[in-house]
Amino acid sequence: MRIEGSRARGFPVSWRPPKPPGVAALAAIILALAVTAGCRAERPMRPIADVLRDHTAELIRLPGVVGTGEGREGGHPVLLVLVRSRAAAEGAAIPKVIEGYAVRIREVGEVKADSSP
Asked: Considering its fold, how many domains does the chain have in total?
């Protein structure tokens, strides 16, 4: 529907009813909300040593994982997940964040106990 009125300064005056938001507009809004929600990183609440102690056993059970450790990245503490090889850990569901700490994967090869005294 288009309603036209008188001319003001040579331009036609017209009014159109607003269009309802389309699927694309709704999808864009939902995507924006999802992205901003994902940007709110969980802050670590416990010391990294406690988090490692509580999660190492479950991480070691993942295929290819041989150990865990602490590291630093950009001045912030991170959890290290040590893997035999990246290929061996490909199928493992290694989380990206644990209790607010970023998780980084380090390839270390085969780990063997040293039998020397």
From this structure: 2
